[in-house]
Amino acid sequence: MKIALAGIGKIALDQHVPALAASPDWTLAATLSRHGRVEGVPAFADIDAMLAAHPDIGAVSLCLPPVPRFDAAQAVLRAGRHLMLEKPPGATLAEVHALQAMAADAGVTIFATWHSRMALGVAAARDWLAGRRVTGGRITWREDVRHWHPGQDWIFEAGGMGVFDPGINALSILTHILPTPARLTAAELDIPANRQAPIAARLDFAGGITADLDFRQQGPQTWDIALETDGGRLALSQGGNLLEIDDRPVQGRGGIAGEYPALYARMADLVARGASDVDLAPMVLVADAFTLGRRATVASFDF
Ligand code: NAP
């Protein structure tokens, strides 16, 4: 099936374009972006023009930042095309509920992706935790925003989510593998004096799980989840790509290379089955952190 990619920025070029090029299911047939281009692919700056010019394009994958994404998403669904959304699926929960309803009315697929759930150790972690009781745990998600999000001022604007942009990846794994729903009980948000969104956050969940999210990490980068249970210890590292049980490696290897091919394979499967997949649990936890969180103003941040 032909697909269009919208928002040709870092993640589109780093992951989506190579995943589509290698996919047996999809052909990248157009792009939508004001500045970004993919060599050899017809480029558009207006989504309605792109959809009108290409009735053969059955699906559109949106890689825009969350705030400008809703209008484009509505245009895709109004045109009766299948819709795939980068994480987080929108700027607000209500937006995504509205898109879900539109997709159902139009009889098309909507897939709110969580790429970290496709990491190599995640499915095995979920299987291992089933039937066990989690007694505590710690998420450590610390990365250098200057390296991974160079010049992306939108990430620190209202709706950009700040450190929750990567932090929601940890929450997407947590909500997928825990045998019972995660519930946030407290949060502290560090917001730079010149910005609207947090550069660091500390979270507490019911049941003794904590999270330490930080965008200011220099040196080695950390994307780890450690959980204790009544039947042993689980550790997911490298963003969910390496699973260890009681300190012994069980599954996985480094890198996120397989996550995006797996997302596009799942999208193809959803379309083939006439199904949709929208799980807002990670985004609910972020919204709750903004609702409950105590704010501290910290040093200004510039790229
Ligand atoms: P990015 O490099 O800033 O790219 C987003 C693109 O969207 C921009 O290049 C821009 O292209 C377009 N755009 C349209 N309206 C915009 C606006 N109002 N403000 C800024 N850009 C706008 O961002 P990204 O890192 O690719 O992230 C995009 C989405 O992917 C986010 O939801 C993010 O959470 C997710 N994601 C990112 C990563 C990562 O490592 N960076 C990993 C996984 C997922 P034009 O100027 O050409 O229109």
Query: What is the H-and-E element order?
Result: EHEEHEHEHEHEHHEEEEEEEHHE
**Strand-residue fraction?**
25-35%
Q: How far apart, in Å, are the first and last alpha carbons?
A: 39 Å
Number of domains: 2
Account of the protein in words:
The structure is a single chain. The protein is of the alpha/beta class and 303 residues long. The chain folds into 2 domains: 2-112, NAD(P)-binding Rossmann-like Domain (Rossmann fold); 116-253 and 287-298, Dihydrodipicolinate Reductase, domain 2 (2-Layer Sandwich), CATH 3.30.360.10. Helix content is 32%, strand content 28%. The chain contains 9 helices and 15 strands. The chain has helices at 10-21, 47-53, 69-78, 93-106, 122-129, 145-148, 164-177, 259-273, 281-292, and strands at 2-6, 27-32, 43-44, 57-62, 82-85, 110-112, 134-142, 184-192, 200-205, 209-214, 222-229, 232-237, 242-245, 248-252, 294-298. The strands form 2 sheets. Strands 14-13-12-11-7-10-9-8-15 form a 9-stranded mixed beta sheet, with helices on one face. A 6-stranded parallel beta sheet has the order 3-2-1-4-5-6, with helices on both faces. A hairpin with a 4-residue loop joins strand 12 (232-237) and strand 13 (242-245). Helix 3 runs parallel beside helix 4 (93-106) and helix 7 crosses helix 9. The longest helix has 15 residues, at 259-273. The protein is globular. The model has no long low-confidence stretch (mean pLDDT 96). Bound molecules: NADP nicotinamide-adenine-dinucleotide phosphate. The site of NADP nicotinamide-adenine-dinucleotide phosphate has 23 residues, from helix 1. It comes from Paracoccus aestuarii. One of its GO terms (molecular function) is nucleotide binding. Pfam families: GFO_IDH_MocA. Residues 1-111 form the Gfo/Idh/MocA-like oxidoreductase N-terminal domain. This is Gfo/Idh/MocA family oxidoreductase.
